[in-house]
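Appendix B, record 7
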Amino acid sequence: MKNPKSYDQNVPDAKEFRDARDKWQKDQGADPMLRQNAIDLIVQSNKYNYGYQWEWCGIPIIRHPDDIVLQQEIMWSLKPLRVIETGVARGGSLALSASLMLMLGFESKVLGLDIQILPHALDSLSPWTKEGKIQLVECDSTSSIAITHVKKFIGDSSSPCLLMLDSNHSHSHVYQELSLLAPLLPMGSIVIVADTIVEEMPENYYPNRPWSRGNNPYTAVQQFLIENKNYSIESKWARRSLMGECRDGILSRIS
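Structure tokens (predicted):
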């Protein structure tokens, strides 16, 4: 008679499974053909606005599922007491951050900055803003107003924060956001720079936008890292998601 427990003889224990996953993730992130296949799939799926089809807590979230799960992993590991986001769009990303903070057992402290916050976003987020779980400020994310609000929001806390940059994707704007806001974060904080994927997309893919290959969040990150040695690419997360839009755009404050 077959031993009913024999099925587990070849099942790796927790450490073995973690080590295997670490290797899979590293190898996957280093596979250029796989990434190109993912980019090709993104281009094809964009015909149907795949990235616009998802919701979080009933609110549209303009994010690929890979990056939604990635943020959960980052927040579960980092356990930030403050989350700052530039770019509000329809509000789903802010709701994601707020709900993940509650799952972590923390008081929700999320700050959203955008040059214009539209009525539909205000309506969708009203249950969160009325309870003080999300704060919204209408301003340019590179302005002195933004800096003042971020400083006040972080206060004298030394606990790591999460900063997400997802507004204007031009090189100059993202570089200014990084230069002005990243230095305000405590040691160990993480910055997620959205849409570094622009550098990988076909030439002239964004004809009506002020960003393109050579002028986008990825190039801004590269310049920022050259000039700011207290930040580095967070290798654990930077190439974690296959169809992710923030490849090589996840930074950690190291000094």
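Remarks on this record: The chain has one domain: 15-253. Residues 14-29 form the longest helix (16 residues).
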